[in-house]
């Protein structure tokens, strides 16, 4: 059993979000969905709480109403093995959302994601400070992370 797990508050799109997220990640599954009854407070038959799993991580989604919104203060970070994975997740998760700087985006539900290739922390952590600085400057000019550009900056 996972001791700590993300609990995501949606206005009324929890079921749509769960379906979307599980379509993006191949290693995913939808779990138990609890629906509102006649007593409410949501419309009878709509999802109150939905459980789902992405890449082995358990999540819970709640249709809790419009009181709370997602902010960039919390984000989901995806470790990508290569540019192809970056391109895939970037494309899928940014559909209907907003892209931002340095590999960050908001999906169509307002949840923030970081789409990060394994090369980024490796190149940023180079013991050669000049190489790491060039990588940082290159990254700061990107929206979606471009591994080839990072490696070119690293090489000088």
Task: Tell me what the structure shows.
- The protein is an alpha/beta fold.
- It is 31% helix and 28% strand.
- The chain contains 5 helices and 8 strands, in the order E-H-E-E-E-E-H-E-E-E-H-H-H.
- It has helices at 14-24, 83-94, 119-124, 129-139, 147-155; strands at 7-10, 28-35, 47-54, 57-63, 75-80, 98-99, 104-106, 112-117.
- Strands 1-4-3-2 form a 4-stranded mixed sheet, covered by helices on one side. Strands 5-8-7-6 form a 4-stranded mixed sheet.
- Helix 4 (129-139) packs antiparallel against helix 5.
- The longest helix is centred in the middle third of the chain and has 12 residues, at 83-94.
- The chain is elongated, with a radius of gyration of 18 Å.
- It starts with 6 loop residues before the first strand and ends with a helix.
- The relative contact order is 0.14.
């Amino acid at each position: 059993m996972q001791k700590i797990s993300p609990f995501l508050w949606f206005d009324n799109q929890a079921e749509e979000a769960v379906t979307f997220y599980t379509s993006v990640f191949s290693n995913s599954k939808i779990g138990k969905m609890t629906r509102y009854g006649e007593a409410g407070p949501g419309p009878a038959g709509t999802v109150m709480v939905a459980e789902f799993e992405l890449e082995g991580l358990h999540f819970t989604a709640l249709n809790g109403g419009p009181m709370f919104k997602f902010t960039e203060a919390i984000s989901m970070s995806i470790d990508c093995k290569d540019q192809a994975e970056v391109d895939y997740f970037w494309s899928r998760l940014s559909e209907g959302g907003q892209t931002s700087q340095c590999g960050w985006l908001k999906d169509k539900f307002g949840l923030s994601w970081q789409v990060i290739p394994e090369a980024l922390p490796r190149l940023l952590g180079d013991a050669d400070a000049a190489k790491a600085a060039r990588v940082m400057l290159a990254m700061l000019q990107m929206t979606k992370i471009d591994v080839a550009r990072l490696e070119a900056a690293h090489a000088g």
